[in-house]
Specification:
The complex is a heterodimer. By secondary structure, chain A is mostly helical. Helix content of chain A is 70%, strand content 0%. In chain A, helix 1 runs antiparallel to helix 2 and helix 2 runs antiparallel to helix 3. The longest helix of chain A is centred in the middle third of the chain and has 32 residues. Chain B is an all-alpha fold. Chain B is globular. Classes of the chains: A mainly alpha, B mainly alpha. Chains A and B meet through helix 1, helix 2, helix 3, helix 4 and helix 5 of A and helix 5, helix 6, helix 9, helix 12 and helix 17 of B.
């Protein structure tokens, strides 16, 4: 592997992060959001591996009888293992939540789901939905009090 | 006391959380409270020891900067105690079914372990790992209400949270590329040469936004109102009260040790000011008590960011006061909002049925507004006098914003008091649950104790701030200078 390939990978990891973040912001579908998240995390992990990588080095394992030569940095590799594990767990959790939410609301569209969630919260709280943006929260209470 | 006891702070709750489902019978319900009491005991023993000299543990005897370092000064010890006791007050004592209760207790223990870990971590990557652990546990707890609304709110929380964690990881990567270390003391040593440049600042901003998710920093706090409105009351209390403070503490450690730069302080100041403004005005417009409390929590954490932005020990003292006050008040208010979380119409006249809880509610609200002699007054006093002592206009603007938004705060909080003591015979407001009254009663007792001993507490607070601000001592304690002729 040469320097050139290293830079290609570097550009690829930054590209993956950009695609992932863009995907999370732009998609409305819950499943696509999770996919975009995993792409962004893959980019981050790739970047982490690359910063410890040297194209002329060997794996960081010391064996008896082998001369010490340049080795790749093992700390980013340890970090990336942790980060992969965390990422996998969080994505599984996000998927599980998406499946549950799909079962209750019957859709995967983030916009519709947020509106339903908003309505649910308002219903539980006994607050009317925000029909007018200019009415302060208490105006209705004051009015009903005056009527009574 | 042996230094290795520091490792027990995160290890004990984590171990207990995984062993909890294996304990048979009635003893299972005792595992969590006993573990938390043990952690509180460790914290209380730690407190006098670390007053003069902070305690350092090199895990596995790998000397810093190579191995994992745990570091405890008086601020860490205080937060260890707070983590254990607050979690104990907000402990899930009962649940709908046994399996569900087991899961909740396990997750709460993981959260306590991760928060304890954040308090004593001495390296950047451990901060990241404990932060993620706290994040995953809080995702599980937030979704624990099992309603569809809670699931969507948690889904959004997960997406924002993990995207920002990625950002924090990239920030740590940037720091590692430039310095080759993640040990905080070593980084503090190398920072003036290698990190006080645009790239280092970019890394700090990335980590600030990454950790800011849990600390309800402006820009990345959009999850908070929905999650607090849908999650169980004690979970909201834990997230708003406890987890946010530990995330804040991690950011402040970075600021003090590695990035004591005006640019970094300005970022904290500006984001904090925007947090105060957006939080207070959104709380003013909120239609139900729970979301009102959520937005006001964002505003108060904004005030804490503003306070920590003030350079020197004065800023740290003010920040600690604001943060600790919020830690006492917000969980108690969320506990009371469990039954009184709806619209004002639903709680009209609630004071007649539950006079004690209504009295507690008023006490917390008065303290939040900063009415003397309650602790909230002293927190706001320290914050405002710290801001006024600064020479530039932006700091004074922050002070003006805090004073002006206090008026807004007063309007929406007195609206709640008005509803509680109002009269409306058409609605029968819910009476408070025993757990909420007892839990918030404990917080109220501490609040009153602090109010009566406020003059005595100024000295320890200042000492904590001075100790925390002394980055040279931190470096010297973790990386003792190697004397010539002494074998390392």
């Amino acid at each position: 592997m040469t320097e050139f390939t290293l830079y290609t990978f570097l550009a690829a990891s930054l590209g993956l992060i950009a695609i992932g973040i863009g995907g999370v912001i732009l998609s409305r579908n819950l499943f696509r959001i999770v996919l975009a998240l995993s792409i962004a995390e893959a980019g981050g992990n790739l970047l982490l591996v690359l910063i410890g990588f040297r194209h002329d080095a060997i794996a960081p394992i010391i064996e008896p009888g082998r001369a010490l030569t340049t080795m790749v940095d093992s700390i980013p590799q340890a970090m990336v293992l942790t980060s992969i594990v965390i990422g996998a767990g969080v994505q599984a959790l996000a998927l599980a939540l998406a499946i549950r939410a799909r079962a209750s609301y019957g859709t995967l569209d983030m916009g519709i789901m947020r509106a339903r969630m908003e309505a649910d919260i308002n219903r539980v709280a006994g607050a009317e939905s925000a029909a007018s943006l200019h009415a302060p929260a208490s105006s209705s209470t004051l009015l009903t009090e005056r009527k009574a | 006391m042996n230094h290795s006891v520091l490792a027990l702070v995160p290890a004990l709750p984590l171990l207990a959380s995984f062993l909890l489902p294996l304990v048979p019978g009635a003893a299972r319900r005792l595992v969590g409270p006993l573990t938390l009491l043990a952690v509180a005991f460790i914290g209380l023993n730690l407190w006098p020891l670390v007053q003069t000299e902070p305690m350092v543990l090199a895990v596995g005897d790998f000397a810093p900067p190579l191995g994992i370092t745990f570091y405890a000064d008086s601020v860490s010890a205080l937060f260890v105690i707070a983590v254990a006791l607050v979690t104990l007050v907000l402990w899930p004592w009962s649940g709908s079914d046994a399996g569900n209760l087991d899961r909740k207790q396990s997750l709460t223990l993981i959260l306590a372990g991760a928060c304890g870990g954040l308090a004593v971590s001495g390296d950047l990557f451990n901060v990241y790992v404990f932060y993620e652990l706290a994040a995953v546990a809080s995702f599980g707890l937030a979704a624990g209400a099992r309603t569809a609304a809670a699931q969507i709110a948690t889904f959004r929380y997960v997406v924002i949270g993990s995207l920002c964690s990625l950002l924090a990881l990239l920030g740590i990567t940037l720091i590692y590329v430039q310095t080759g270390t993640v040990n905080l003391a070593h980084l503090a040593q190398l920072a003036p040469l290698k990190l006080h440049n645009p790239l280092g600042l970019a890394a700090f901003f990335m980590i600030l936004l990454g950790l800011g998710v849990k600390a309800e920093l402006f820009l990345v706090n959009t999850w908070a109102p929905d999650v607090y409105a849908t999650a169980e009351a004690r979970v909201s209390g834990l997230l708003a009260g406890l987890v946010s403070k530990l995330a804040l503490l991690a950011v402040v450690r970075l600021l003090v040790l590695i990035f004591p730069l005006p640019e970094a302080r300005d970022a904290l100041l500006l984001l904090g000011m925007l947090g105060i403004l957006s939080g207070e005005f959104a709380a003013f417009r909120a239609r139900d008590v729970k979301r009102m409390l959520a937005w006001s929590s964002i505003a108060q954490l904004g005030a804490a960011f503003v306070a920590f932005a003030i350079p020197g020990p004065a800023g740290l003292a003010a920040g600690l006061a604001v943060a600790l006050h919020h830690l006492l008040v917000k969980p108690a208010l969320f506990l009371l909002a469990d039954r009184w979380g709806g619209s004002l119409a639903q709680i009209t006249g609630a004071a007649r049925n539950s006079p004690v809880s209504a009295g507690l509610f008023v006490l917390f609200i008065l303290s939040m507004l900063g009415v003397p002699p309650l602790p909230g007054f002293w927190a706001k006093y320290l914050l405002l006098s710290g801001l006024a002592a600064q020479p530039e206009g932006l700091w004074w603007l922050a002070g003006a914003i805090i004073l002006l938004t206090t008026v807004v705060e007063a309007v929406y909080l007195f609206r709640v008091i008005g509803a509680l003591y109002g009269r409306d015979h058409t609605v029968t407001p819910k009476t408070q649950s025993a757990t909420a009254v007892i839990g918030s009663g404990v917080f109220a007792a501490v609040l009153l104790a602090v109010a009566f001993s406020a003059p005595l507490l100024a000295l320890p607070l200042n000492r904590m701030a001075v100790q925390m601000a002394d980055s040279a001592a931190y470096i010297a304690r973790v990386l003792p200078p190697v004397l010539p002729g002494v074998a390392p």
